[in-house]
Write a structure and sequence with these properties.
The chain is mostly helical and 1117 residues long. It has a 5-stranded antiparallel β-sheet with strand order 1-2-5-4-3. Strand 4 (161-168) and strand 5 form a beta hairpin. The chain is flat, with a radius of gyration of 42 Å. Its main location: nucleus. It is found in: Nucleus; Chromosome; Chromosome, Centromere.
């Protein structure tokens, strides 16, 4: 508000006349040039010196601009030497200077409270970032209706100012500031460390102010009344800066008052105890004067007065701001409410206040929900407060449980911690169904959430003692520990089996690692349970439990060796500290020393596939007992031939044969001996089988399976056509591995051109045999052959790209056209098929989908690596929308990769895809037959074009591509079209509607070019705009004529748009207003004319006025 002239002059006269009148009314300028309200020159250290004048009195002697917000965040060291400071500058000086200046302010307040109070008012307005003017006037009565009617908050657009006039009794304050205050970053929201630092210092100022005056002026019915009125009014302002800053100040003031009330309550309780002690004394020991003095301290008036202040702030600020539109304000309110209930529970911890915490747990902003959960953690963590939370717990328990599924990870983690706290302090709150739901979070993909759920699992199920027995006193401590460990393991195995997630042992172990690491790293106890004699009297484990325990052992070994990093689980620490690394090395050393000796004994059991993985995590420096382990592995491989065992053994041999491993020579010798022995046996078996031309025996199958993981078999595939199905699958995989190994070792094996030619011949023969297997009667054989051919061709293309041209390398090989068509047909027939809702279970359907995704990914790799023509991707792209949920990510990535290779050719592939779909639809419509599964509707094709258009994000980068799409589409519609009475319109004219989806991706100059290109193809044809058949052309033209950003063809055609050219339109403007584009073209027809010829030349696309060039288009008839 621009101050009223009379009030301003009156205030000026009062300031010049006497000091007392200056206290009643005066403007406080807080502009950037004159920060105002500065203290008189004084030393901060001289705290006991009387504060003879206020900041308002000495404002003229201060230097201008000292308290700007930017300089407030400067060096603290320099600011401590400033002698004359404002209260706003005190915030920049730290807590020690803050206490000194506030003490001086209190001394000045005792001398002249009106002027000092104006300084405090100015402080809060300055902290809001306001660089305006504050005018203060005295008010005689709160109930004056004329005064209250003037309490407004308005803006003056002419002057560019806004003002707020409000009552902070006994003051009527008018704040005037520029209109753009909301767009300015006030101190609380400034980015970087300054904003956080100012927030902390500002809160400290309020706390110190209350702490310094809690025994004196806080009860004078003047300071707190004015301050509460000020903060209440400013917290209700429409200006964000005022509302945010003063809400924070008000709730912090309430928190400080709660602390003062708590101190007063403690003092009253101590005085009552002392009074009771004095009353019990004898008459000689009693002191009447002391009793009276103690009784005076026992008064409830001050505490009631503080509680009244807190109630006013709560009702005036909190109840209005806890639902504020600004999330930061809502977070502040919820954070402080939790503090009030914990700090001063006698007044705030009841259902009247708890309900706000429960309501705001449904807030849409994560930080607000987080503050509610953190506040509840403080309440449930105090056993004294639990009885008062019973009703709240029963009312909002379901909400607290559901928040573990919150989309914000931090809210979910803290909600789980809250429930863990509730489970420890309140036994009967969570039901078994609740625990069953919460404990499943140990398999969560977020490690912090899973670790918290692991803590709940450990405290609920695993942290138990062994059952008491009659001979409890007789057993040793070691035996008691063994029984307790067995009981915990039994409970863990039972939980895992009941959860029915049998492929997530590593996630379960990782979740329990932080709280139950001692149990999981007890290698002697785990191995003793596995090696326990089943004939002993102690209860043992079933075969299923033994298998799960072995998985837990392997997972704990991996965790102790590699750390908590797991594929598919995020949130773990990426960098380990030196202490964590030391613990990791110590654990790895212990497990290596223990398991290297006991692992050969464990391998004698039937569960060997998982146990075979353990040596991969041993320390490479340990060479003791390696020979015994390798000998036992060889014996196991003579007995077991399952793929899981062979793969684990192959990886273990790879680890033990590394150069850094101490016993690598022993491991290599054993591996080579094993492989040579198998080769000899397999050769003999194959020779016998081929001589009798029959099928191989079971032993022969076994060695084929074994060799598929250890050796690459190279024999013509035709020799194995009569073999059983399993052998054929293994042979296909062997041949694939052989070709991949041959390509990978080309640098060592290809030393001449003859060897390169021989390799290419092998590749051609392999592709021919694989092509033949694509027509096999069994689906698994067809899929294996498809994957083998795709993998080998992809590897061959990769070797061609990375090969050094100066040396011998793989020769160029292109698959035959028949093989290319066969691969494409296979994908269309076996990948893009409808869902099977037969008797198959959900797990089987997911496995089938996984196989189909692998098949599609293998085919797309051929296109990306240039093995197949990019145009073959059109058949894949056309299923982008139809199978978006199943294969959308793979197809989209293929688009992205092909566009990186050749963006023009990739755009042509998209065009080819849309045109093929459109042609199939037209043929289906003309034939009138039954709908074919491969034919899509016109709406779906148009939607597919829209999704294709969305992939062209950068209009400049893909400018040529979009223009090419339009040119190709126009040629597709009008090329070879000759107009006759039987065919008045092109056959594919409706394709223009699909093509219009790409018009929004054209730049404005390109729209004119495409429009001109369209006119060249339509200039010689007679077009009847009244015919419905020409609507696609009108629609497409409208999409090209639109130049407004974000406006599509539909909005252009249907909107009331003025279409005329300045000074050149033959029609008056009044006639064109309210006329659509179609109506405009129709208005050009005379009543006696049934059709016209449109001729729009490219030269008329420019006008004399270049500024209107993008908004107008000329049409010549």
């Amino acid at each position: 508000m621009i101050p009223d002239p009379t009030a301003a002059s009156s205030s000026s006269q009062h300031n010049k006349s006497t000091h007392d009148e200056a206290n009643s009314s005066g403007p406080v300028n807080q502009s950037e040039d004159e920060s105002g309200n500065e203290n008189r020159h004084k030393s901060v250290r001289r705290r006991k010196r009387a504060h003879n004048g206020s900041e308002n009195v000495k404002r003229k002697s201060a230097k201008a601009g000292r308290s700007s917000v930017r300089r407030a965040g400067g060096s603290h060291g320099k600011q401590r030497h400033v002698e004359a400071v404002t209260l706003f500058e005190v915030v920049t000086m730290g807590r020690s200077a803050m206490q000194a200046v506030i003490d001086d302010w209190l001394e000045a307040y005792a001398t002249n409270r009106d002027s000092s109070l104006l300084d405090l008012i100015s402080f809060f307005i300055q902290c809001s970032g306001c660089k305006g003017v504050v005018t203060a006037e005295m008010c005689q009565s709160k109930e004056d209706s004329e005064v209250m009617s003037k309490m407004v908050e308005e803006l003056d657009e002419v002057a560019g100012l806004q003002y707020k006039k409000f009552l902070a009794f006994p003051w009527i304050l008018t704040v005037t500031w520029p209109m753009d205050t909301d767009s300015v970053e006030y101190p609380l929201i400034q980015p970087g460390p300054y904003g956080r630092w100012f927030h902390s210092e500002f809160c400290d100022f309020v706390s110190v102010l209350v702490a310094q005056c809690q025994h004196s002026v806080i009860f004078d019915s003047y300071l707190m009344n004015t301050l509460i009125s000020l903060l209440t009014e400013l917290s209700n302002s429409y200006v964000r800066a005022f509302r945010h800053t003063c809400t924070l100040a008000a709730v912090k003031l309430l928190s400080s008052l709660a602390g003062a009330a708590l101190s007063l309550s403690v003092s009253i309780e101590n005085s009552q105890k002392l009074y009771e002690v004095q009353k019990t004394k004898t008459m000689r020991q009693k002191s009447t004067l002391q009793l009276e003095r103690i009784q005076k301290k026992i008064t409830e008036e001050k505490r009631a007065e503080i509680e009244s202040m807190m109630d006013i702030i709560f009702k005036g600020v909190f109840l209005k701001r806890y639902r504020d539109v600004l999330p930061e304000i809502r977070s502040i309110c919820m954070e402080e409410l939790g503090l009030w209930m914990k700090l001063y529970s006698s007044a705030f911890l009841n259902d009247s206040y708890l309900k706000y915490m429960g309501w705001m747990m449904h807030d849409k902003i994560p930080d607000v929900r987080l503050k509610c959960v953190l506040g509840l953690q403080g309440l449930y963590g105090d056993p004294v407060l639990l009885p008062k939370l019973d009703l709240f717990t029963s009312r909002f328990k379901e909400r607290m449980i559901s928040m573990t599924l919150d989309k914000d990870n931090e809210v979910a983690v803290q909600s789980m911690k809250l429930l863990v706290l509730i489970s420890k302090t309140c036994d009967d709150v969570l039901s078994p169904e609740d625990y069953k739901q919460l404990l499943q979070f140990v398999y969560s993909s977020q490690r912090p959430l899973a670790a918290t759920a692991g803590e709940l699992l450990f405290s609920r199920l695993l942290d138990t003692v062994a059952p008491a027995s009659d001979t409890q006193d007789e057993i040793s401590e070691e035996e008691a520990h063994k029984q307790q460990t067995f009981a915990r393991l039994k409970a863990l195995l039972q939980f895992y089996q009941e959860s029915e997630l049998h492929k997530h042992v590593v996630y379960l172990v990782d979740s329990l690692w932080d709280c139950g690491g001692a149990l999981l790293k007890d290698w002697p106890a785990l191995t003793s349970v596995l090696l326990e004699d089943p004939s002993s009297h102690s209860p043992g484990l079933t075969l299923e439990e033994q298998a799960v325990l072995v998985e837990i052992l392997v997972a704990s070994v991996r965790q102790a060796s590699e750390g908590p990093a797991l594929a598919g689980r995020s949130g773990a620490k990426k960098v380990m500290s030196a202490r964590e690394k030391k613990i990791l090395i110590d654990d790895c050393t212990k497990l290596t020393e223990h398991l290297l000796i006991l692992l050969p004994k464990l391998l004698s059991c039937d569960i060997v596939a998982s146990l075979m993985k353990i040596p991969q995590y041993f320390l490479p420096e340990c060479s003791e007992a390696v020979s015994g382990l390798i000998a036992e592995m060889g014996a196991v491989l003579e007995l077991h031939s399952s793929p899981a065992v062979l793969e684990a053994a192959a990886r273990t041999y790879l680890s033990l044969c590394g150069e850094e491993t101490a016993g690598c020579s022993v491991a290599r010798a054993a591996r080579d001996s094993l492989v040579h022995r198998w080769v000899d046996q397999l050769t003999a078996l194959l020779g016998d089988s081929l001589e009798v031309r029959g099928t191989v025996t079971l032993d022969g199958q076994k060695h084929v399976f074994v060799l598929s993981y250890f050796f690459a078999l190279m024999h013509p595939l035709s020799l194995y056509y009569n073999f059983c199905l399993k052998v054929l699958l293994e042979v296909l995989q062997c041949l694939c591995y052989s070709m991949l190994w041959s390509l990978n070792t080309s640098s060592e094996t290809l030393t001449s051109r003859e060897k390169a030619v021989a390799q290419r011949l092998q590749l051609r023969l392999f592709c021919e045999r694989g092509h033949h297997c694509l027509s096999h009667s069994d689906l698994s054989v067809r899929q294996q052959a498809f994957l083998a051919v795709c993998d080998v061709l992809t590897a061959h293309s990769y070797q061609l790209h990375v090969w050094d041209p100066t040396s011998f390398g793989p020769l160029l090989y292109t698959p035959s056209p028949k093989l290319q068509r066969a691969l494409l047909t296979f994908v269309c027939m076996h990948v893009f098929v409808g869902p099977d809702f037969s008797e198959n279970s959900e797990v089987e359907r997911l496995e089938d989908l996984h196989k189909r995704r692998n098949l599609l990914a293998a085919f797309c790799k051929l296109i990306v690596h240039g093995v197949l023509e990019m145009s073959m991707a059109a058949e894949v792209f056309m299923y982008y929308m139809k199978y978006y949920n199943d294969f959308g990510d793979i197809i989209k990535e293929t688009m992205y990769r092909t566009r990186q290779i050749d963006k023009i050719e990739s755009a042509r592939t998209l065009v080819l895809c849309l045109q093929q779909l459109f042609v199939r639809l037209k043929r289906e419509q003309e034939s009138g037959g039954r709908a074919h599964p491969g034919v899509q509707t016109f709406t779906s094709i148009k939607e597919l074009a829209r999704r294709f258009a969305l992939t062209f994000g950068d209009l400049i980068k893909f400018r040529e591509c979009v223009v090419m799409i339009h040119r190709n589409g126009i040629e597709f519609v009008f090329q070879e079209f000759s107009q006759t009475p039987e065919t008045p319109t092109p056959l594919y004219l409706s394709y223009l509607t699909i093509l219009s989806e790409f018009s929004s991706k054209l730049l404005k100059p390109d729209k004119k070019t495409v429009f001109s290109y369209l006119q060249k193809h339509t200039a010689e044809h007679i077009i009847d705009l009244r015919e419905e058949c020409w609507q696609p052309l009108i629609y497409y033209r409208a999409s090209l004529l639109t130049v407004a950003e974000g406006e599509d063809a539909v909005s252009y055609v249907s909107s009331d748009r003025k279409l005329y050219l300045p000074n050149r339109s033959p029609f008056p403007k009044q006639k064109l207003e309210g006329t659509t584009l179609t109506q405009y073209f129709m208005s050009l027809l005379s009543p006696s004319t049934s059709c016209i010829t449109l001729n729009i030349d490219a030269s008329v696309l420019s006008t004399a006025n270049e500024e209107d060039d993008d908004d107008t288009v000329e049409v010549e008839l």
